[in-house]
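Can't paste images in this forum, so I'm doing it all in text. The chain is below; anyone willing to post the predicted structure tokens underneath?
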Amino acid sequence: FARIQQGGKLRTGGNEPFNDSTWTAGTGNTTGIGYDRDPDYLTDIGTDIYDEIYNVRQSFYARIPFDWTSQTPVESMTLNIKYDDGFIAYLNGQKIAERNAPASPAYTSGATTPHESYGYETIDVSTYISNLKHGENILAIHGLNYGTKSTDLLILPELIIREQKTAPVEADET
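Text version of the structure:
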């Protein structure tokens, strides 16, 4: 359920509807995208892109569509992400988070520094709740590797949306 593109123009997920039918469809039971020549990230990777990335380019794009149909107001939104080496995340075309990204990213950009993933990093993206739409949404990721010959690459995002809880209504005893 992720679509991957290995080049072309900068893709932020904001020009919907967007025809991504020529992109590689994600596989596996996780949204993890990348490769690892060691066993460190193998359980996190659902779509292995070693052949498309290694020694060829240092970045890729992924589009992860999801539906939001709740009528309950959103209280908070966080991006939990495992990454090696960097990324830029967009929600419906609006940048919501980045790590180790260049100031002016291009489709050929790489991470500005190496980073090993030792678990999820939680990033509060509640500032961008207004970008969440009722219906189909796109979480777009520009995955960034530190060079073309890195031994590993991982992007594993989770967007967590917390709804407001309503206070319990007390019964009137009269």
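The chain is about 0% helix and 40% strand. The longest helix spans residues 50-53.
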